[in-house]
Design a protein that fits this description.
5-stranded antiparallel beta sheet; alpha/beta; 8-stranded parallel beta sheet; 365 residues; single chain; TIM Barrel; binds (4S)-2,6-dioxohexahydropyrimidine-4-carboxylic acid; binds zinc ion; 29% helix; 13 strands
Length: 365
C-alpha cells in the first residue's frame, strides 16, 4: 500500500561539515535524509570547529547552502566563551545546544553558573536543547523552571530519565523530549552482534527495562529524533571508537514496523516525526511537501547500500518494513527511489531562507 505522508522532520542530526567530511558531508547526509523520508533536519554544532560564533556559523552555513539536498537548520553550541555572544546569533539558528555530559567533540558546559547564564541569556522564543544524562536532566529542568523557560531534552534513554520528564510535565513545566530509534529498538544485549566499537553511542545502549520504560511512556515522548551520528567503519573498529550511529535511513522503517505490530499508531508516529518537532522548534511550513511510502515493502538493511557516507549501520541484516518511494519538497520531486534527483544546494535554511515553492519554471520553447 502506498501512503502519502508529510515530509518528516529530524530535529537532531550530525552532518560533520565543516571539518570531518571523511565521515559525512552536507550532500551525503541530506541524501540519507531524503532516502529516509526527512525533508528537514536540524544539525548539531559539534563540528570541527564547533559552531559557537559568527565565523564558524557562517562557515557551516556556506557548506550547507552549497550542498544540502533537503531543508535544514543549524544549532549553535553553548560554550564557556560565548555566554554573552551566542544569544544575538539566535535568529540565524534553530536553537541553542547545551552539552552537560561529555560526548563526541569538545563542547561541554561543566559548571552550573555557565549553564544558568546561557539559559538566562538565550531568547525565550528560541528552543534550547540539552544533552544531559541521569541526574543532570533534573538539574537542567530545575534551572529552566526557575528561569521560567522551555527546555527540550535530547535522546532520553533510561527509565529514571523518562519518569523524571513525566513528573516535570505533570507539574506543568515546559519540558519536551525526544527518543532515538536506536534506544527504542536496541539494548545492551545487541552489543555482541553489533561489535564493541560499533556499539559505542552516547547515551549508551541501555537495559531491556529502560527500553520497556520508553515504550510504556510513549505519551511522554514528544519527538523521535535519529541523532544520526556517522563515523567511519575504520574509526568505529579502531583503538578509540567514537560514539555514534547513523540513523536517517532506518528510522521510518523501524517505526513503521512498530505500527505494523500495533505498538504504535500511524498518528503517534506522525505526531513525533512531523507535528511535534515542527511546533517545538517553530519551523515554517514546507509548502507542497510530501513523501510517498510503500508501507508493506520489506527490505534487508545493508550498510553498503545506504546513502550515508559511513556505509554501515547497527541494524545490519535486519528485515525492515516500509520504503520511501518519492519525496516532493516545495513543489519539486527531489527523490525517486533510489535516486536523489535534485542538485546539491536545493535545501534551504529554515531560519533564513524562504520555504515557499519555487515559482513554476516556464516550459522551454
Ligand atoms: O553517540 C553520540 N554521537 N552521541 C552524541 O551525543 C554525539 C554524537 C556524535 O556527534 O558523534
Ligand atoms: Zn547528537
Amino acid at each position: 500500500m502506498l501512503l502519502t505522508l508529510p515530509g518528516l522532520i529530524d530535529p537532531h542530526v550530525h552532518m560533520r561539515e565543516p571539518g570531518q567530511t571523511h565521515k559525512e558531508d552536507w550532500r551525503s547526509g541530506t541524501a540519507a535524509a531524503l532516502a529516509g523520508g526527512f525533508t528537514c533536519v536540524l544539525a548539531m554544532p559539534n563540528t570541527r570547529p564547533p559552531l559557537v560564533d559568527i565565523p564558524s556559523l557562517e562557515a557551516a552555513e556556506d557548506c550547507a547552502r552549497k550542498k544540502a539536498l533537503c531543508d535544514y537548520g543549524l544549532f549553535i553550541g553553548a560554550g564557556a566563551d560565548n555566554l554573552e555572544t551566542a544569544a544575538p546569533l539566535a535568529p540565524k539558528t534553530a536553537g541553542l545546544k547545551m552539552y552537560l555530559d561529555r560526548t563526541f567533540g569538545p563542547l561541554q558546559l561543566k559548571n552550573k553558573a555557565a549553564i544558568t547564564a546561557h539559559m538566562a541569556n538565550w531568547p525565550a522564543a528560541k528552543p534550547i536543547v540539552v544533552h544531559a544524562e541521569g541526574r543532570k536532566i533534573a538539574m537542567a529542568i530545575q534551572i529552566a523552571a526557575r528561569l521560567k523557560r522551555s527546555l527540550h531534552i535530547a535522546h532520553v534513554s533510561r527509565k529514571e530519565e523518562i519518569l523524571l520528564i513525566k513528573a516535570a510535565k505533570e507539574k506543568g513545566l515546559a519540558v519536551t523530549c525526544e527518543v532515538t530509534p536506536h534506544h527504542l529498538f536496541l539494548t545492551k544485549e545487541d552489543i555482541p552482534r553489533i561489535g564493541p566499537g560499533r556499539s559505542e553511542v552516547r547515551p549508551r545502549l541501555a537495559e531491556k527495562s529502560d527500553q520497556a520504560a520508553l515504550w510504556e511512556n510513549l505519551a511522554v515522548i514528544d519527538c523521535f529524533a535519529t541523532d544520526h551520528a556517522p563515523h567511519t567503519k575504520a574509526e568505529k573498529d579502531g583503538e578509540d571508537p567514537p560514539p555514534g550511529f547513523p540513523g536517517l535511513e532506518t528510522a521510518l522503517p523501524l517505526l513503521l514496523g512498530a505500527v505494523h505490530e500495533g505498538r504504535l499508531t500511524m498518528e503517534d508516529l506522525l505526531q513525533r516525526m512531523h507535528d511535534n518537532p515542527k511546533r517545538i522548534f517553530s519551523l515554517p511550513e514546507q509548502l507542497v511537501t510530501m513523501i510517498q511510502v510503500d508501507v508493506d515493502a520489506r527490505w534487508t538493511v545493508r550498510g553498503e547500500y545506504l546513502k550515508t557516507q559511513c556505509a554501515w549501520t547497527p541494524f545490519e541484516g535486519m528485515s525492515l518494513r516500509g520504503r520511501v518511494i518519492q519525496v516532493d519538497l516545495r513543489g519539486t520531486t527531489v527523490y525517486e527511489a533510489p535516486d536523489v534527483i535534485v542538485e546539491p544546494g536545493f535545501g534551504r535554511n529554515i531560519s533564513t531562507g524562504s520555504l515557499a515553492p519555487d515559482p513554476v519554471k516556464p516550459i522551454p520553447m
